[in-house]
TrEMBL record:
Name by which UniProt lists this protein: TetR family transcriptional regulator
Residues of the HTH tetR-type domain: 9-69
Keyword annotations: DNA-binding
InterPro entries per the UniProt record, alphabetical: Homeodomain-like_sf, HTH-type_Tx_Regulator, HTH_TetR, Tet_transcr_reg_TetR-rel_C_sf
Origin: domain of life: Bacteria
GO molecular function, one term: DNA binding
Organism of origin: Paenibacillus glacialis
Length: 197
C-alpha cells in the first residue's frame, strides 16, 4: 500500500468513526453529511467521493462494525475459553452493540436499506450460525452441554433469547445494575431457575 492509499484509508476510517460516534447520540435521519463533514474535519466533497451518499456511508459503517465484531469474536473463540465464558462474552458484545446500535436504529437501517438487510442475512447464515454451532459442539465435546440436549435444542433456546433481546436489554437497563441483571440471565441460560445441582 502506497502513501496515498494509506492516507485515503485513514480519512475513510476517520469519516466512518465520526459517523458511528454520531449514531450513538443522534437518529440516522437527523444526521447530515454537513454535520459529519464538520465533526470529521473533512470536506463534504471528500465524503461523497469516498462513499457516494449518506445511505452508502451508513451501510459501510454498519457492515464494518458487524465484520469487526465477528472477527473479534472468532479470535476470542480460538483462545480456549469455556462455554460459559463464550456465552458471557456474546452477551457482553450484545450489550456493547446495543450501546452503539440501539435496536430501533438497527430496525430503521435494515428496513430502509435492502442491500444492508441482505448483507446481514447472508452474514448470519454464513458466519454467525456456523460459529454458534461450533460453540455448541465444543460445549458438547467438553461435557458442558448435556448429551440429552441436541444442537437444534440449543439453537432454538438461543433464538428465543435473541428474539427477546431488545426487551431483555431494556429491562437490564431499567434494573439499575445491567451487569448483575445480565449475569443472572446467563446463569438462567445455563442452569434454569433452580440453579446448579
Amino acid at each position: 500500500m502506497n502513501g496515498f492509499e494509506k492516507r485515503a484509508n485513514l480519512i475513510k476510517e476517520k469519516i466512518m468513526q465520526t459517523t458511528l460516534d454520531m449514531l450513538r447520540t443522534s437518529e440516522a435521519k437527523k444526521i447530515r453529511i454537513a454535520d459529519i463533514s464538520k465533526m470529521a474535519k473533512v470536506s463534504q466533497v471528500t465524503i461523497y467521493n469516498y462513499f457516494g451518499s449518506k445511505e452508502a456511508l451508513l451501510r459501510e459503517v454498519f457492515k464494518n462494525y458487524f465484520d469487526k465484531a465477528i472477527r473479534d469474536f472468532e479470535d476470542y473463540m480460538n483462545e480456549g475459553h469455556s462455554l460459559k465464558e463464550k456465552i458471557e462474552h456474546i452477551i457482553f458484545l450484545e450489550k456493547e452493540s446495543y450501546n452503539d446500535f440501539p435496536p430501533a436504529l438497527m430496525k430503521e437501517l435494515l428496513i430502509e436499506d435492502n442491500e444492508l438487510s441482505r448483507y446481514i442475512e447472508e452474514q448470519y447464515k454464513e458466519r454467525t450460525i456456523p460459529l454458534t454451532v461450533r460453540i455448541i459442539q465444543e460445549g458438547k465435546d467438553s461435557g458442558e452441554i448435556s448429551d440429552d440436549v441436541s444442537i437444534e435444542n440449543v439453537l432454538t433456546f438461543i433464538q428465543l433469547y435473541m428474539n427477546q433481546y431488545e426487551t431483555i436489554l431494556e429491562m437490564a437497563n431499567k434494573s439499575g445494575d445491567m451487569d448483575n441483571f445480565l449475569e443472572g440471565m446467563v446463569h438462567m441460560f445455563f442452569y434454569g431457575v433452580c440453579g446448579k445441582r
